[in-house]
Amino acid sequence: MIEFRFAVGDLATTSFAYSPLQEAVFSLRCLHDPARYPHHRPWLRRIRPRLESLDRELLTALVAPWLWVPDFLSPRPARARPVFADELDEVRRTPPDVVSADFRASYRTEDAFPPVVVRGLADPAAFLARLADALDAYWHTCLSDGWWPRVHSILEADLAHQARVLAEEGAAALFAGLDPRLVWTGEQLLLTPTGGTAPWTAADIRIAGRGLVLMPTLFARGAQTVLDPSRPPMLIYPARGRATLSEAPPPVTDRALIRLLGRPRARLLSLLAEPASTTELAHRLNVTPGAVSQHLAVLYDAGLLSRTRSGRTVRYRRTPLGDELCR
């Protein structure tokens, strides 16, 4: 069992974040076991030719056979919505001894190391530089354009949902909704890992003023944490709505709604049951952001959409009136 122990005030410092670097690294699990991630199969089919130009031997070796990943490859985000390049710079600053220790922890025994890791850890500093360059190339070749905008939309929608649950139902309902195996006692958050490909070590993790960060991912079947319990506490959980990644935009079947709004606006309204930005909607519909923006403005002015700003991003969502219209 993994126990997260909360002192007075620790619950108040619990926060949510997501990480493009974590999702990039965790996506490498698909190369090991595509059957575990059926919603990523369309993406895998698209990127297979591009993988040939990358350091695939090394990228595959970043994930152990039981799908564990060295902790230093997914550092705890310093803010809720980090930038991939900033996170990768943090990875580049990892001390060489940590690189070696984290690979040993994820593979559990050096006898299980693939040859590329054995060769690389003979010079951890050079290995780290090669590793970071490989991840950077993987991100820009396979992820940043068509894949990340969809993933980003799902993660943002998850955070919006969890915020509503916390506000309306409290911490116990929030944690139970992240994973049924999570139990909140008022002072402890208990997790009993089951059904994994390798057993997790029991841990007693004291929050101790460091803040627990809750992180959604598209690459976990249940809640999990870092391998080294002495590091700043994180709890990674399955993102809500991850199955939508492989879905095509839903057809608009209500002819009256099409006649009222036109097909482009009716389709946008049907997509906005969960929050999304102009860019995310444009990627999903394969149109320009400018075209989407014009239709969103009309729907917003008609009272069918609400909008909220998060940094530089404006996210739209159906209002109750929009929900009723879609019914």
UniProtKB/TrEMBL annotation:
Coiled-coil region(s): none
Q: What is this protein called?
A: HTH arsR-type domain-containing protein
Cite the source lineage: Bacteria, Bacillati, Actinomycetota, Actinomycetes, Kitasatosporales
List the Pfam families hit by this protein, alphabetically: HTH_20 (PF12840)
For this protein, the record's CDD domains field holds:
HTH_ARSR
Organism of origin is Streptomyces cellostaticus
Which positions fall inside the HTH arsR-type domain?
A: 256-326
Q: Which GO terms describe its molecular function?
A: DNA binding; DNA-binding transcription factor activity
Would the keyword Transcription turn up in this protein's UniProt record? yes
Superkingdom classification of source: Bacteria
The record's section on PANTHER family has: ARSENICAL RESISTANCE OPERON REPRESSOR ARSR-RELATED, HTH-TYPE TRANSCRIPTIONAL REPRESSOR CZRA
Instruction: List, alphabetically, the Gene3D superfamilies matched.
Output: Winged helix-like DNA-binding domain superfamily/Winged helix DNA-binding domain
Q: Where are the transmembrane segments?
A: none
